[in-house]
Amino acid sequence: MSLLSVSALLAALVAAPSPAHAEPAHASSTQAEANEESAITDTVLQVGADESSRKLSWMSENSGGGEVRWAKTSELNGSALPDDAESAETTESGLSTDLKRHFNHASMTELEPNTEYSYQVGSEKDGFSDVAQFDTGVAGDDSEFLVFGDPQIGAGGQPDDATGWDRTLNSALETGQDPRFFYSLGDQVNSAGDQGQYEQYLAPEATRTVPQATTIGNHDVASKSYEQHFNRPNVSGDHGGSGAITSGGDYWFIDSGVLFININSNDANTDEHAEFIDEVVAEHGDQARWTVLGFHHSIYSTATHSDDLEVKRLREAIPPVAARNDIDLVVSGHDHIYNRTFLMDAEGKKVASSDAGFEQQKEEGQTMYLTLTSSSGSKFYDYVPGLDWEAKSVHNDVPAFTRVRVSDESLRATTYEVPAEGGTQAASEAIDDVEISRQSDEEPSPDH
Fold first, then answer.
1. Edge to edge, what strands does the sheet with 251-255 contain?
2. 153 belongs to a structural domain
3. Whole domain around residue 74: which residue ranges?
4. How far is CA 345 from CA 122, 319, 323, in A?
5. How would you label 31-54 residue by residue, b for 16+ Cβ within 10 Å and e otherwise?
6. Taking the mean position of all CA atoms in its chain, how far away is CA 121?
7. What is the percent of the chain where pLDDT is above 70?
8. What pTM, to 2 d.p., does this model score?
9. Are residues 241 and 125 in the same domain?
């Protein structure tokens, strides 16, 4: 991680959150719709603690604070929210790290399933954002989510990182079927405090219309900007690290019967991470049909970072925690290469019955690990052959994403590349497919 400049240090130190303050009664929908000089930027729609809530972040030019307003799309007055729209004031706001704008966090709650909502954020001082739509979808049945490795906007990809990220995200949304959310596995930007890079990462329309979850990468951690831009649910104040000038915090959420746990792998205190995972699973595991763990530093990649000291420490610490909590799938980035492991046991060893095939039946305590490559084409790493955990590795230096389909019976992870040819709506090409199911306790019938 690069050293912070003096200016970045000063900027981060004065960017501590300030309590949200009440705004005057919100402007009418007509006023909000008519305000063409809105000073709202970087609006981000994010997952909530469960399917009935969504979190939001945005930047404003004035003193911070304000509100989110929302209503069912069927209740719009033309393209404007009705005067009796639901509203909620900011839960947190403060001066942003660039010392020019203010960050704002708020939540929408008590959302109904299978319903399209419209929302906007802002205040009387800053105006309101354009009205945007999202669909809560049907949770609990068959569903899916999308996973992306390192966009790393600003790292110097060709034609450029922002274009590559937009292409891959759009291609994934075209490939998937109403994904519940998308999941970015860290290094959203190349320079932790660079506001322009965040603006490029958040430029695609989908960042306002499809909920997202993020994992913090080593390029994100060295500034409060990550925490300001992403309003994550259930963030731990005791696990996952954070400081006056850094971002962090482990967190969790539940969506469509899947328990998602995120840890900040930049924090080297693996005992704290283990305690967090143990506590979350003990309290919420019985609500989940599957459990997914996400963090940035892949412990089972097939590229050069697999030999890093911090990765080796994680590779020693994570498998026993994953096994005792019956984590089904672990997703990570960092190494800019695609890799799938065999099913792995509590000692970090290949399960004898596991192979590189499509169907993988797991017993309790067995876990599969996926490493996601760059989603923008920012950079790629060299392949390291012969590693014991490699079931399938693809190293074509092409941006990719993974589509995970969820049912009561299985998790199916299909990974696609997005070639550079084909314009902004590039077609995706499947490069790997694996389905994880649980071994049945029932005896096979005599006919089988």
1. 251-255, 258-262, 290-297, 329-333, 368-371, 338-341, 390-394
2. yes
3. 16-135
4. 49, 7, 7
5. ebbebeebbbbbbbbbbbbbbebb
6. 21
7. 89
8. 0.90
9. no
